[in-house]
Amino acid sequence: MASLESITIRVGIKPVNKPTDKVIFRVGDMEISKSARDVVHQLLAPIFKDAATPAVDTRTFADDAEPQIGSALDGGIFAGLTLDDGRPARLILLPGDEELNWKDAKAWAAKQDGMLPSRIDALVLWQNLKKEFKDTWYWTSAPFAGADDSTWVQSFDYGSQSYYLNS
Questions:
Q1: d(CA 13, CA 70)
Q2: Which residue intervals of 49-141 are DSSP H helices?
Q3: Measured between alpha carbons, how far is 5 from 8 in angstroms, rounded to an integer?
Q4: Would you kindly state where each structural domain of the chain is located, as residue ranges?
Q5: Which residues contact 13 (CB under 8 A, 6 or more apart)?
Q6: What is the dihedral of CA 50, 56, 61, 65, to 10 degrees?
Q7: How distant, in Å, are the alpha carbons of 61, 68, 95, 112 from that of 74?
Q8: What is the pLDDT of residues 76-113, one digit of tens each?
Q9: In what helix (H) or strand (E) does residue 141 lie, and over which residues does it extend?
Q10: Are 108 and 141 in contact (CB under 8 A)?
Q11: What is the widest separation between alpha-carbon atoms in the chain?
């Protein structure tokens, strides 16, 4: 029996437009065909497994109704896509910019019918809507592992992330 010491699989991923889109993996004479959505979810699941519930306001959507990043949507600004319980959802930046401690920031977001962003969603917000933020640090919903009194923060000047005491 032949052994494989390593194998390289190259997969091109394009935006998933329809539930019927397929990704086909070919290794030698073997072919595996999977739903493109399933492949994307399986690839992203490890990234999101430890993240808190995704950011600010998430709503599921129809395939043909994706708005433009930066456009007004549901009382906020569309920032891009995120995952909500393993399903694609819209990430919406809600209006308001309050300088609060972490506990009060979580309560403020909840009153807006939203939540603080996860670390990943904070990066999406920085990448897509940086001009909507002051050049300062913003809270995320993600606790810093190993330190119950610290939470991850996102810088909107250079895009870096760090942690800060949340009490």
A1: 24
A2: 102-111, 119-129
A3: 10
A4: 34-165
A5: 23, 36, 39, 40, 43
A6: -130
A7: 12, 13, 11, 12
A8: 999 999 888 888 888 999 998 888 999 999 999 898 88
A9: strand 137-143
A10: no
A11: 64
Tokens at residue 72, please?
């007004």
Spell out where 12-74 has E strands.
22-27, 30-35, 58-59, 72-73
Tokens 């032949």 label which residue? 2
Asked whether 120 and 141 are in contact (CB, 8 A), the reply is no
Lookup result for tokens 């603080």: 116
The first and second tokens of residue 113, run together, are: 């019918």
Pairing label, strands 76-84, 72-73: antiparallel
Rounded Cα distance between 166 and 148, Å, is 9
pTM: 0.61
**Residue 130 identity:** K
What are 55-84's pLDDT values in tens digits?
344 445 554 467 899 999 988 999 999 888
In terms of DSSP H, where are the helices of the chain? 36-48, 102-111, 119-129
